[in-house]
Specification:
It is built from 17 helices and 12 strands. By secondary structure, it is of the alpha+beta class.
């Protein structure tokens, strides 16, 4: 609800096969049960009687990649519409009910999924389940609600993109430049959508989108925390069991997304005070064998003050104010992005040169054992710390289920990262981080004449 795109938000922050039968699966310190209702709703129950809360978390298999040309922004619009009332819950009451019960809630959307989540006291998790079921069953889609939320989304776009420094460049770097929208529209347009498409939205189209994607057979419900599994099964069946299954959605089509690379363009930004450089390299989906090495390579290159790019561009050369490198891995083809904001008096071509030199150092000389170990330790710490809360564990189970097809991969993902070698790092750098496989965005502050 307040975070329309995780990957895009990370850049802005620089200035972040299922069996029907139930099974018990150990995942590190998380034991979960997974089963499926007759209507297709997938359910993951992870009881932890030592917890002091319960997380109720629903992921829908719908994001901006499911939108069609002329209807961009529908996924993001629904992230807002889902709080506008249902058969038994008036507009705004979902949030009120959760907060009055002593809980918290929110929602977010990315290219690949939309999630709705709440953390509540153990004696009120049935309330959260009922609230989620009511809007899945009977969301109130009206002309009034739609028009009001379209204006809210448009204002959000103005605030976060159109009037924000590097906002337009950010969209170019994440979507429009690296992906060929003629062959891969799912990732060749932004999550937040265009003003024109939002203005053209009609109630019948919005209702069809809901009927297609907001159905039990297109969702996974995860419950984590202090609850009795038998009781939870009863609540889930009572609240969700009668919601009808929808027809299966058409599969997403994305072919040859990076065949147009390399490409280079300049963006004039009236909100930026300093030049900036973006490079997006065509990469692989989450879970691909090379994704683990790319993840650690991003950490070595551009995470923290000891990273190679920070040391060279910020500390030694004093050419950049900030720098970052990281993969944005998706269910479909992902990208690896490098980003830097220039210091006063430094041009973007200088940033391009220095970034290229540091990437070439990895391509020719690899990385040290200490660098790789530090990157692995950072990944391990982040993974462990991220699962300290019930919501953190719920999100981790959902992510592994959605992107890797198995919530049990929550355990093996750690092993896969730890198995990456320095040889793997150098190999993926040579395979993906090449000048022929990138889209470059050069951001220039507007001149006084342009601003006039």
């Amino acid at each position: 609800m307040r975070n329309f795109c995780r990957t895009a938000g990370a850049v802005a922050a620089l200035l972040l096969a299922i069996p029907a039968a139930a099974q018990q699966t150990p995942s590190g310190d998380t034991t979960f049960e997974m089963y499926e209702l007759a209507n297709g709703l997938r359910v993951i129950l992870a009881p932890d009687r030592a917890s002091t809360s319960v997380a109720v978390n629903v992921w829908y298999d719908v994001g901006s990649r499911h939108e069609r040309p002329g209807r961009s922004g529908f996924g993001h619009l629904f992230e807002h519409l889902m709080f506008q009332g249902s058969e038994n819950v008036a507009r705004g009451e979902h949030m009120q009910f959760v907060e009055r019960a002593g809980g918290s809630m929110n929602a977010s959307i990315t290219e690949d999924r939309t999630n709705y989540f709440q953390t509540v006291p153990p004696n009120r998790y049935n309330l959260a389940l009922w609230l989620e079921s009511d809007r899945m069953r009977s969301l109130q889609i009206t002309e009034e609600n739609m028009k009001r939320e379209v204006e809210v989304v448009k204002e959000e776009r103005r605030l976060r993109i159109d009037n924000a420094p590097y906002g337009t460049s950010q969209l170019q770097a994440f979507y429009y430049a690296p992906y060929d929208a003629t062959t891969c529209f799912p990732y060749g347009h932004s999550v937040i959508g265009s003003m024109e498409d939002l203005d053209a939205a009609e109630v019948r189209d919005v209702q069809q989108f809901f009927d297609t994607y907001y159905a039990p057979n297109n969702a996974t419900l995860t419950v984590v925390g202090d609850f009795d599994p038998a009781e939870a099964r009863g609540f889930v069946e009572e609240y969700f069991g009668g919601i009808p299954r929808a027809a299966e959605a058409e599969p997403v089509q994305c072919t040859e997304p990076f065949s147009h690379l390399p490409t280079r363009q300049t963006v004039t930004d009236g909100n930026a005070q300093l030049p900036a450089f973006f490079a997006s390299y065509g990469a692989v989906p989450a879970g691909h064998a090379d994704s683990y090495a790319l993840s650690l390579l991003g950490s070595i290159l551009g995470v923290g003050e000891s990273s190679r790019l920070h040391q060279r561009l910020v500390r030694q050369e004093q050419a950049a104010l900030a720098v970052q490198a990281s993969p944005a891995l998706r269910r479909g083809p992902g990208i690896f992005m490098v980003f830097a904001i220039a210091n006063q008096g430094v041009g973007v071509e200088r940033l391009d040169q220095l970034l290229g030199e540091e990437i070439e150092r990895v391509r020719t000389g690899g990385v040290t054992a200490d660098e790789l170990e530090k990157a692995k330790n950072r990944y391990r710490a982040n993974a462990v710390l991220g699962r300290q809360t019930t919501m953190g564990r719920a999100e981790a189970l959902q992510w592994h289920n959605h992107f890797l097809g198995d919530p049990g991969a929550i355990q093996t993902e750690m092993e896969r990262h730890m198995a990456v070698s320095a040889v793997d790092i150098r190999r993926v750098a040579n395979q993906y981080l090449t000048p022929q496989n990138r889209a470059v965005i050069l951001t220039q502050p507007a001149t006084a004449a342009t601003q006039e």
